[in-house]
Fold this protein.
Amino acid sequence: MANLYKDEPETRIKDITFRALKGKFVDLLKETQTTQIDYKTAAKSKITRQARAIDNTLTPEQIEEICNDPEVIYGVYMEFIII
């Protein structure tokens, strides 16, 4: 049934509008993904700086663990406070 009206002007207008909106939507999703990646990178950098300020002997693996699970940093804080 949809192919029956394929050459109708209204159908072409709807198709063009749909493609334009689809393109804008895809562009918006890409921009959102880029923003999320930028935020995650900035947050990881900030967490790394803060963790190093508390304990500069942390290994890269420990810092990665802290970035993935922020609750881990409380253990590092407690060790810092006790020492």
In short: The chain has a mean pLDDT of 85.
